[in-house]
Write a structure and sequence with these properties.
The protein is mainly α and 235 residues long. The protein is 69% helix and 0% strand. The protein contains 15 helices and no strands.
Length: 235
Amino acid sequence: MDPVIKNLRSELFRNADEKVKESGERFFKEEVRLYGIRSAVVIRIGKDHYKLLKDKTKAEIFSLCEELWKSGMMEESFIACNWSYYVHKNYEFPDFEIFDRWVNNYVGNWASCDTLCNHSVGTLVEMYPSLLTKLKEWAKSENRWVKRASAVSLIVPARKGKFLEDIFEMADILHSDTDDMVQKGYGWMLKAASQAHQEKVFSYVMSKKSTMPRTSLRYAIEKMPSELKAKAMAK
């Protein structure tokens, strides 16, 4: 085991709190493995240990991230997500293969999914928009977390007004999914897009409202004015 990982895990164990662990477990329907450490402390510990990696290459850091993912511990997955984002200025197109492996093999809850995809995956897709085709493949997966990942990877670009037509295409693919995690994911994506394209997103929602799951609909219109919300929610 890499000594940085060994020391990192020792510090995580020292900071574990049973009450925080029990509280954290209540946030998830699925079984999760937690040390029981508040998010701010996890971020600090991750940053402190990342400073020891200054001589590591991006490939070496990604390898350490994968070791953290393999543990199945949520706090370690958060640190892996953050470390993988810290090297985003050096991202290259083939890095998507690594993120694809992590999403397919290790992501097992909404928190790890969103932390990885909002930042690392979303940034890579902004840098290489042709990767949108890969996200559309994710949207057709049988894995609920891969499907959610396809949508939440576009949250940050959507807020910037980017990729609107692709966002609508993704929403079309995910439209009738029965999984609430997927419904919330693509509804969130539409909500983010509405911050820059309110009129177009509202028109899209109105065109789909008779068949769109109510969960997705409510998420999509959350940032809109009350009069638009009323129209969208009307039977």
